[in-house]
Specification:
Oligomer: single chain
Distance between the termini: 22 Å
Number of helices: 1
Radius of gyration: 15 Å
Number of domains: 1
Helix content: under 10%
Length: 165
């Protein structure tokens, strides 16, 4: 958890914005009604309060109202206006940013085809290709699959990439 966050009983690994840091899981789900889930290819910013740079939007899904149905053993049941949607540009999924209907940032989630909070059917997308969410879960504390030194990083020409331990 980030030092500026208050301890929550459900301890999310998602990156909450300061405005929602003390919200319950049910309050966060309610805030997403009519909001958006936007996918990017870069590493997630250090906090959800930082802007996303160096990445175009890969795809955007709109949450229905309510944004979530009754959870199952497999995880949450997000309700989208359309799923799949068409990819906006070419890239590999890195994370997703969820916002309210008025555009206020709620949280950043891990996203991709593997063990992520938002599991996608595809590894990457291109313009017009289908992007489909197949599962959604709120990981427990420490559940973010990337190492902390990857946060807010950007590949740069002439610099080595991080090495796996």
């Amino acid at each position: 958890m980030m030092p500026h966050r208050r301890t929550l009983c459900w301890r999310p690994s998602m990156n909450l914005s300061l405005e929602f840091a003390s919200s319950s899981l049910d309050e966060i789900k309610a805030a997403l009604a009519g909001g958006t889930l936007t996918f990017y290819s870069v590493a997630r910013p250090l906090t959800a309060d930082h802007k996303v740079d160096r990445s175009a939007v890969l795809a955007t899904l709109s949450f229905a109202s309510p944004a979530f149905g009754t959870p199952t053993d497999a995880g949450e049941t997000p309700q989208f206006a359309a799923n799949p949607v068409q990819g906006a540009t070419t890239g590999t999924f890195g994370f997703a940013r969820a916002t309210t209907a008025d555009g206020t940032v709620v949280a950043d989630f891990s996203a991709g085809p593997g063990d992520r909070e938002i599991k996608l059917a595809e590894v990457s997308t291109s313009h017009g290709a289908p992007v489909r969410v197949v599962s959604f879960k709120f990981n427990p504390e420490g559940g973010w699959p990337e190492r902390p030194d990857y946060y807010d990083t950007h590949p740069r020409a002439g610099y080595p990439l991080h090495k796996a331990l």
